[in-house]
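Example for tutorial group B:
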């Protein structure tokens, strides 16, 4: 077979010496090196992959000929092809609920692997992605043969990338997102330990997974490398004890809940907003018409709250919706909703004035939100005034950013006389002369077609349906 695909290496996969990830269009490939192939053969022949892929815990895959790909070199024995997920996300974009589910998935898979005499070589949260509210493990090269008595090499990584961020919120009501994004590697155990109060030290689980591991780690840093190696070489953890540790950790994480469980600013916005049920119905009907005409495979809902309009889009024919919001209460409520109804609805944390940038090694390891933009359509309801008024971002720049995320969508303009904007202006000078409906329409019209507009409230909120492409069938232009 002659090579016919010239793939691009996925930047974030360089850390794994066992293989690399490549992409060509909508196709995803993972190589398996000759050096690692014996471990992969053991795992594959055990039947483990067949079980976990069937249960949709691990991403399915199939073998393809290495000769299919151009330039991957002779060092690779296998090439696997896996399905493309609708949206790649990172742990610093997950809510507490999502991070918790990802942690429990990792532990569940680790426990199942032990039944097959298999363990995991690491515990990176970046090995988990989401399809809707369902976490799925994506790294087939994380699995290798278990060796009796070996210690859990991934313990520290699991703590810093899963457990510590969860405890930060569960113990102290502090969200992990900004901190995690800043470090890339999670919340360091030494840092979390500084937050602990005296009563935490009476918790055996805290001692086991935070205090004692940190004391050991700090002591090894203060000794020579040879001492550290000798200490580790003498360590042993029987499989029964290893399983018990994983099960206890699993039970603990299942019980964790956010410390700040009270009402948040936007958690109940869908029930307590400033407009009538009639206005809600107008919005939903407008979204139905838009979705039925545009037929998006992937729709982004920027400022989704708990997902009322995302659900409307799904009911109207959108195949997959990614909802973004910065309110943790709203995200957790939306995540629970997606879980309960098994919706193809994925929720991510987003401060729209500070979206995820390109970062990591060479600024390429973790692509920015815009670099991952693959939406067919978007809706941005009751959003732009929070950026243009509350964050002083020029209206045209807000609109330019939104329209750059998807070729068609609905943007809601909320005028100054609206109660919500009046609240934003209550204690500050109005320095926004260009924040007008006319300016909004003029900018959108200069870049796209406006297919339809509609007033939704007594305060003259307006929904604007734009398209960068040709006019959709059956829809009249403005």
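The residue assignment follows.
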């Amino acid at each position: 077979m002659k090579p016919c695909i010239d793939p691009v290496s996925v930047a974030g996969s360089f850390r794994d010496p066992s293989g690399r990830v490549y992409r060509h269009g909508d196709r995803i490939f993972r190589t398996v090196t000759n050096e690692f192939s014996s471990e992969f053969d053991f795992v594959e022949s055990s039947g483990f992959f067949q079980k976990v892929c069937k249960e949709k815990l691990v991403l399915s895959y199939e073998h393809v000929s290495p000769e299919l790909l151009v330039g991957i070199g002779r060092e690779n024995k296998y090439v696997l092809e896996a399905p493309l997920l609708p949206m790649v996300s990172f742990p610093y974009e997950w809510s507490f609920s999502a991070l918790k589910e990802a942690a429990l998935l990792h532990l569940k898979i680790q426990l199942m692997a032990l039944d097959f005499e298999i363990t995991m070589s690491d515990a990176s949260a970046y090995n988990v992605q989401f399809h809707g509210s369902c976490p799925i493990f994506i790294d087939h090269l994380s699995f290798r043969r278990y060796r009796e008595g070996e210690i859990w090499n991934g313990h520290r990584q699991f703590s810093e990338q899963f457990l510590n961020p969860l405890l930060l919120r569960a113990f102290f009501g502090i969200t992990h997102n900004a901190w995690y994004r800043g470090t890339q590697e999670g919340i360091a155990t030494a840092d979390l330990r500084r937050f602990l109060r005296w009563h935490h030290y009476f918790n055996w689980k805290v001692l086991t997974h935070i205090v004692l591991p940190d004391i050991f780690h700090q002591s090894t840093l203060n000794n020579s490398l040879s001492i550290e190696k000798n200490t580790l070489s003498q360590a042993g953890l029987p499989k029964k004890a290893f399983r018990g540790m994983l099960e206890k950790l699993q039970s603990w994480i299942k019980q964790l809940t956010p410390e700040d469980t009270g009402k948040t600013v936007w958690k109940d916005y869908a029930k307590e907003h400033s407009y009538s049920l009639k206005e809600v119905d107008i919005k939903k009907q407008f979204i139905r018409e838009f979705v039925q005409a545009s037929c998006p495979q992937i729709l982004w809902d920027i400022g989704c709250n708990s997902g009322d309009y995302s659900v409307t889009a799904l009911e109207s024919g959108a195949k997959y919706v990614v909802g973004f919001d910065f309110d943790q209460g709203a995200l957790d409520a939306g995540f629970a909703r997606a879980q309960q109804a098994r919706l193809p609805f994925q929720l991510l944390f987003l401060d729209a004035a500070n979206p995820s940038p390109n970062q990591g090694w060479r600024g390429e390891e973790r692509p920015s939100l815009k670099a991952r933009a693959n939406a067919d359509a978007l809706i941005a309801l009751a959003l732009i005034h929070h950026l243009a008024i509350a964050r002083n971002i020029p209206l045209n720049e807000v609109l330019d950013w939104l329209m750059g995320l998807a070729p068609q969508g609905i943007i809601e303009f909320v005028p100054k006389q609206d109660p919500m904007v009046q609240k934003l202006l209550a204690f500050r000078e109005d320095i926004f002369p260009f924040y007008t409906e006319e300016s909004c329409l003029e900018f959108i019209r200069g870049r796209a077609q406006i297919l339809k507009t509609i007033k939704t409230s007594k305060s003259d909120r307006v929904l604007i349906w734009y398209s960068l492409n040709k006019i959709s069938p059956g829809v009249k232009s403005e």
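The mean pLDDT is 91. Compare this with the pattern of hydrophobic and polar residues in the output above.
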